[in-house]
Design a protein that fits this description.
- By secondary structure, the chain is mainly beta.
- The protein has one helix and twelve strands.
- The strands form two sheets. Strands 3, 4, 5, 6, 7, 8, 9, 10, 11 and 12 form a ten-stranded antiparallel sheet that branches. A two-stranded antiparallel sheet has the order 1-2.
Length: 253
Amino acid sequence: MQIWVPGLRMLLLRAVLLLLVLPAHGQDSVAEGPGVLLPLPKGACPGWMAGIPGHPGHNGTPGRDGRDGTPGEKGEKGDPGLVGPKGDTGETGITGVEGPRGFPGTPGRKGEPGESAYVHRSAFSVGLESRITVPNVPIRFTKIFYNLQNHYDGTTGKFHCNIPGLYYFSYHITVYLKDVKVSLYKKDKAMLFTYDQYQEKNVDQASGSVLLHLEVGDQVWLQVYGDGDSYGIYADNVNDSTFTGFLLYHDTN
C-alpha cells in the first residue's frame, strides 16, 4: 500500500524539470558557446531540488502616528444655508435710558383747503326819535344804529327771526312826564314786564334784558301795556330809548 505525503507530487515534478534543464548533475558552469563555460549566477542554488516555501510571517505591530501635516490653504466661502425656523419671542428687556432729544423734523406738506365755515349773523340796535303816546301796539324804533341783515323791520317795529337759535334782547328806556309800563313780546305773548314810576321834574331810566330761543318766523317787539296813561317813554336829541337784540349761537340740528 502507497502513502502520499501532501506536496510530494509537486516536489517530484519540480525535480524532473530541473534535471531536464541542467546539463549534468553537480555542474557549476554554463556553456556560452562551443568550448566555453560560464560560471553560474551568484546566488543560484547549485542543488538539483528547490527548498520548500516557508510559512507567511506574522503581521508586524502598527507604527507610530505620523506628525500633523501643515495646514492647507483656506477654502472658498460656501453658499448660505437655508433659513431656519423662527425662534420663540424672547422676554422684554429692561427699558433703556432716555436718549437725547432729536432735531426737529422737516415740515410736512400743506394740507388741502378745508370747507369754509359759514358764520351765522343776526343783530340789530335801534332807538326812538320821538315820544310814544299810543299804548298796546308795537313801538316803532326808527333811529337805526345797526341793522345790516335787515332782520328788524322799522315800519312795524318787529324783529323777524331768520336763523333758529338763542338770542339776547335788551332795552333801555328814558322815562319822562309819565309812568312807564313796557313789555317784551314774542309771538303775541308777553315774555318780560318793566314798570317805572315817574318822579316829578326828574328824568328816570328803566331797562330789561332776556334770553329767548327763537324759531324761523318768530317775531319779537316792545310795546306799552295797560289801559292807563303809562306811556312815558321819552326820547330827544340828548336822551335815548333803545332796543337791541342779537344771535348768540344758532341751532345745529
